[in-house]
Design a protein that fits this description.
InterPro entries: Flavodoxin_fold, Flavoprotein-like_sf, NAD(P)H_dehydrogenase_qn. Belongs to the NAD(P)H dehydrogenase (quinone) family. This is NAD(P)H-dependent oxidoreductase. Keywords: Oxidoreductase. GO terms for molecular function: NAD(P)H dehydrogenase (quinone) activity. The protein is of the alpha/beta class and 205 residues long. The chain has a single domain, classed as Rossmann fold. 42% of the residues lie in helices and 21% in strands. It contains 7 helices and 7 strands. The protein has a 5-stranded parallel sheet with strand order 2-1-3-6-7, with helices on both faces. Strands 4-5 form a two-stranded antiparallel sheet. Strand 1, helix 1 and strand 2 form a beta-alpha-beta unit. The longest helix has 19 residues.
């Protein structure tokens, strides 16, 4: 049985982000996977890196989390086989809650370590696959041509390879505001198909 960690950064439970997240949770559990959920808003996660945590990041050394919730988040991450992150595109970046999750949970000694101190070579500590699902309202061709798809660069170039993600998939759903009910359902199924592939199950399961 594979363990899935699903991290959601959206303040509204009635959002399409959460609609897709709920479908992925239900389908993954039905397929036999264990699913842990980090609801960053409902959990009251503090995205601000503490001064002590920042010292450990600067030195590239392991240190304790600044609070119990972050400590639990870190433990959940290290036990996951598949990471699923869902969030909207706000100003070409993840919401502050998700950015803080990256800062505080993907910590030295948890997601990576630096060989030889702060300026040393990074060594990834995680062994997992990942699916990133992002949501926006900018047409996809404009997102790529005019803005360079910054979320794709953040997740697939900067973050996930650094911490040891092997197979990485990304799905971007846009423009959310003008999708019909049928198009939304199709988009959700596309996201599930990507996760099913990572789990090694048939999408219809």
């Amino acid at each position: 049985m594979r363990r899935v960690l699903l991290v959601v950064a959206h303040p509204r439970r009635d959002s399409f982000t959460w609609s897709v997240a709920d479908l992925l949770v239900a389908r993954a559990r039905d397929s036999g996977s264990e699913v842990l959920v980090h609801d960053l808003y409902a959990d009251g996660f503090d995205p601000l890196l503490t001064a002590e945590e920042s010292r450990h990041v600067q030195l590239g050394v392991a240190g304790p989390a600044g609070d119990a919730l972050t400590a639990r988040y870190r433990e959940d991450l290290t036990s996951a086989d598949v990471l699923v992150a869902l969030h909207p595109n706000w100003w070409g970046k993840p919401p502050a809650a998700m950015s803080g999750w990256l800062d505080r949970v993907l910590a030295p000694g948890v997601a990576y370590k630096l060989q030889g101190g702060a300026a040393g070579e990074p060594e990834a500590l995680l062994r997992l696959d990942a699916l990133v699902v992002t949501f926006g309202d900018t047409p996809a061709d404009r997102e790529t041509a005019e803005f360079g798809d910054p979320l794709h660069l953040i997740w697939t170039r900067c973050v996930l390879p650094y911490v040891g993600a092997g197979h990485v998939e990304r799905r971007h759903v846009t423009p959310v505001g003008s999708l019909t009910a049928g198009e939304r359902a199709e988009a959700a199924e596309t996201c599930w198909a990507a996760l099913a592939d990572l789990l090694g199950v048939r999408p219809e399961q």
